[in-house]
Design brief:
Helix Hairpins; six-stranded antiparallel beta sheet; five-stranded mixed beta sheet; disordered N terminus
């Protein structure tokens, strides 16, 4: 009796043990089905041994095909865009054939029921048997058509913008050449007139013509420089140049202008600043010319000073070119406009002092191309200080046997 009871209990055990497994399986299948219905992607399950695939209902929503339980791979391959077919099938076969690869993904175009093509992003997990042979794949297809169209629109917009910028640069280059050629002749004639015998009135007229011509030439050069920088056509040189000579030339150029306004003008260089540097000396001079020109232009009385010092920067030694003046200054809330193209700290400045509003924008861009920056400090009525920070690069040993370092190193 006991034995029969035990036997009866034993016979009933497989059924009791199997019941939870069936419930779990049903719950899993239900969950899987709900996920397939809820997602916007096409969920697929491919049997690699029979070359058939189970697809989710999203295939009708995305591609227009009625849901079918199984679809053979011949139909899938024939629906690939002809230009994508070899690439996609080769990529898939290679992934399945590589025992070390556990997943596959690919972007391709797929024919819809109406004959149009949509871009899909397809990815799947490769399931292998004990011999590492691929027997099953489970994955999803995402409709990538809208994103690809948006990308195409952006690429085309960028291409058109670059073409327009290049055309603009060529136009400005041609126009500036056409303007500078006769202007150079006018300036040359003006110099000849000033060298000749003129009465006071004639000399004043010739001097005004000369100044106006030089101002116009500077404006033309600014527009051309700005256009080249914006288009990315500016190439900086990395050649040794003599800083001492550069500072002497700046002093010779701006001292007379400061003297005309009875300004005290000085150029100072700390003793630890090296004389020979590696970089684009012409562009360094261009930045300092603009800063000094602005300082003299906006200073009615007092002083203008250029000071060069060597300090430790964030990434190593750096030269600090500081142009300080006792001019009109500008309020802190206007500083954001200083380095914007065609803008000045105060629009009323344009009416009183002139200018295109490009000078500081060009200086900022050139400084950044050199790996540096330009800083500005000012108080209304108390002058301004612009500092051009230039990371220091020592020239080759053949040009400078001993390289000065900042004090304390």
């Amino acid at each position: 009796m006991r034995d029969r009871e035990v036997g009866a209990d034993s016979a009933s055990m497989p059924h009791l043990d199997h019941a939870p497994s069936l419930a779990s399986l049903q719950e899993s299948e239900t969950r899987h089905r709900l996920v397939m219905l809820a997602t916007n992607d096409i969920i697929w399950d491919a049997d690699l041994t029979t070359d058939t695939t189970l697809w989710s209902g999203a295939i009708e929503k995305i591609l227009g095909y009625q849901e079918r339980t199984h679809i053979d791979d011949v139909w899938w391959q024939s629906s690939l865009h002809p230009a994508d077919r070899d690439r996609v099938t080769h990529s898939l076969a290679e992934a399945i054939g590589n025992p070390d690869q556990s997943s596959w993904e690919c972007e391709y175009r797929f024919r819809c029921s109406d004959g149009e093509y949509k871009t899909l992003f397809d990815r799947g997990l490769i399931i292998r048997d004990q011999d590492s042979v691929g027997v099953r794949m489970v994955g999803s297809m995402m409709d990538y058509t809208a994103q690809k169209q948006a990308e195409s629109v952006l690429v085309e917009a960028r291409r058109q913008a670059e073409a327009a910028q290049e055309a603009n640069t060529r136009f400005l280059a041609n126009i500036s050449h056409e303007l500078r050629t006769p202007l150079t002749s006018i300036l040359g004639l003006g110099e000849l007139l000033l060298d000749g015998e003129l009465d006071p009135q004639q000399r004043a007229f010739a001097a005004t013509m000369q100044r106006s011509g030089q101002r116009l030439l500077a404006i033309i050069n600014q527009f051309l420089d700005f256009s080249r920088i914006e288009a990315g056509f500016t190439v900086l040189e990395a050649q040794p140049f003599d800083l001492s000579s550069l500072l002497e030339q700046l002093a010779a150029e701006f001292a007379p202008l400061a003297s005309q306004k009875e300004l005290h003008f000085t150029v100072e260089r700390n003793q630890n600043v090296p004389s020979t540097l590696l970089g684009d000396g012409l562009r360094v001079a261009q930045i300092l010319q603009n800063l000094l020109g602005n300082a003299i232009k906006f200073t009615k009385q007092g002083h203008v000073q250029l000071r060069v010092a060597l300090h430790d920067g964030d990434t190593g030694p750096a030269l600090y070119f500081t142009v300080k003046d006792s001019g009109v200054g500008f309020p802190a809330d206007k500083q954001a406009n200083l380095f914007k193209s065609f803008r000045q700290a105060d629009e009323s400045v344009t009416r009183e002092y002139g200018g295109t509003g490009l000078g500081l924008a060009i200086c900022k861009q050139l400084a950044e191309l050199m790996g540096g920056e330009i800083r500005a400090e000012s108080h209304v009525g108390d002058g301004s200080a612009f500092t051009f920070v230039l990371p220091l690069e020592p020239p080759p040993d053949s040009f400078l046997p001993t390289w000065p370092r900042p004090v304390g190193e």
